[in-house]
Amino acid sequence: MPDTPMVVADRVSKSFGSNEVLKSISLEVKRGEVMCLVGPSGSGKSTFLRCINHLEVVSSGRLSVDGELIGYREANHRLYEMRPKEAARQRRDIGMVFQRFNLFPHMTALQNVMEAPIRVKGLSKAGVEANARVLLARVGLAERADYYPAHLSGGQQQRVAIARALAMEPKLMLFDEPTSALDPELVGEVLDVMQGLARDGMTMIVVTHEMGFAREVADSLVFMDGGVVVESGVPTEVLANPQHHRTQAFLSKVL
Amino acid sequence: MTNTAVNGEKTEPGIKAIRLRHPWRNTFAVVLLLIVALFVADAAMRPAYDWPAVGKYLFDQRISQAAFVTLQLTVYSMIIAIILGVTLAIMRLSPNPVVNSIAWVYLWVFRGTPVYVQLVFWGLIGTIYQSIDIGLPFTEPWVSFPTRVALSAFVLAIVGLALNEAAYMAEIVRAGLLSVDSGQEEAATALGMSWFQTMVRVIVPQSMRVIIPPAGNEVISMLKTTSLVTAIPFTLELYTRSRDIAAVTFDTVPMLIVASIWYLFFTSILMVGQYFLEKRFARGIGDRRPDKKADDATASVAGAMTGVIPVVGSGQPTVVLPPTDPRADSSKGER
Fold this sequence. Notes:
The complex is a heterodimer. By secondary structure, chain A is of the alpha/beta class. Chain A has one domain (5-250): 3-Layer(aba) Sandwich (Rossmann fold), CATH 3.40.50. Chain A is 37% helix and 27% strand. Chain A contains 9 helices and 12 strands. Chain A has helices at residues 45-52, 84-92, 109-119, 125-138, 154-166, 184-199, 211-217, 235-240, 245-254, and strands at 7-16, 19-29, 34-38, 60-65, 68-69, 72-75, 78-81, 94-97, 172-176, 203-207, 220-225, 228-233. In chain A, β1 (7-16) and β2 (19-29) form a beta hairpin. The longest helix of chain A has 16 residues, at 184-199. Chain A is globular, with a radius of gyration of 18 Å. Chain B is mainly alpha-helical. Chain B has a domain at 63-282: MetI-like (MetI-like fold). Chain B has helices at residues 2-7, 23-45, 51-58, 61-92, 97-112, 115-123, 125-128, 147-150, 153-179, 182-190, 195-225, 238-249, 252-280, 292-306, 326-334; strands at residues 131-134, 143-146. In chain B, α4 runs antiparallel to α5 and α6 runs antiparallel to α9. The radius of gyration of chain B is 30 Å and the shape is flat. Residues 1-8 and 288-335 of chain B have low confidence and may be disordered. The interface between A and B is medium-sized, with 36 and 28 residues. Chain A: GO terms for molecular function: ATP binding; ATP hydrolysis activity; ATPase-coupled polar amino acid-transporter activity. Chain A: This is ABC-type polar-amino-acid transporter.
């Protein structure tokens, strides 16, 4: 089913107690599409991203990836909460990159990349290692394979984290502010890797403040504020000619 | 090379300062040494210590056997305590309120009462429950045997020590698990790892760094707490055995010294073991870089050629002076 969208969010809401963080979000991400989520902090973009791989449980609405409902099974018009094992199986196909990298500090870069394919997919070590070295080379870190994360720069760590996510051969990649914790001169190397991924046809949802990246790489841009989608469209148009006053106010600050 | 002229003597004169002196440190050390020497000389002559008796009993077979029993008690009860402690720690962190409460009550009871009292209780268990029955309640038991036969004093000693220790280990392990950044669990979960895999592969290895120092403390503490199992009563461990010998020979002080030497010997071994464990679990944390030597080698070669090279790994490009200049060499050494 190549025509079905990769991600479909249908009136997704999420509350923490009485605090409603997401209010009826509806959007679609097509296969091979790169979508940038932008907006002020606290607007719910990261929460939405975390809902997509079930790190957060949606309060209401439907969220599906590749035609499969996330976190629930539907039978006889009723929803059944998934067992942790089933949720873990869904997450295998969804790669995630975090703001703070979250590499495993007690493993080398190579071991970080090899861990999930060996433990989760049960693949043989030799094949996984060969593939991991290819991935590290792809993010430009072939020579750093045996370094521990503490001895890598922030940009290098984030690139290892991207390689680690790619090792599971995901069909969708989620980036949660991947460059926000980096020194300015290290941002470029991470964005370059992400741009390469986009070129190779990876479906990506990127929460970011890098408007340059959004303009050049993204196929669509979604502006969120206060838990709702305020405006969305082609990045060049939204950035050049924002329609909503909240978008205008936000962009005037970050551009 | 022009670089040498620029970076050399004129622009960066080396600092040749007289180091800050600490005369009182030396004075204090000498005085302390004198006091210790006096004490040792005095102790060597004092008849109450009875050194020949110490030498005679140190390797007495009864003593070395008792020392072995003490070691067994320590090892067995610590193994059980660690397994139970990890289980309790995970139970305490469980979102399941039933499991959580069980662990809480366990800790409340076993941490809230003295280990000596607990050991006396375990000693009396054969009196309180005279037989162990396996079967359904209110029916004839399938199997029944007397408690005193099933549980020897040695077993009771291990059970008593282990159950008490588990409560303390549980809190140590819990602190260790909580010390790991929550992003680690998230990253593992996002990769599709199960909760158990996340624990075993990601959380526990990282928490070990926090757990080992206090756990080492507990092992050493346990080695000495074994002397309390006389409350059971179990009399074959090191302290009670040496007291028993002293009661017959009236060599009280020498026997205490003999026991102390054995305890110190075991403790020292344990401390060495702890050192290596800590080193093992500090992977990726300390300043160990796999190719550090290789880096230094290239640095000196490149330095000799160009005089200026950026140092890999540090945040800012650093200038290293060529090793031809003697002062530059010393500055590189301190880097």
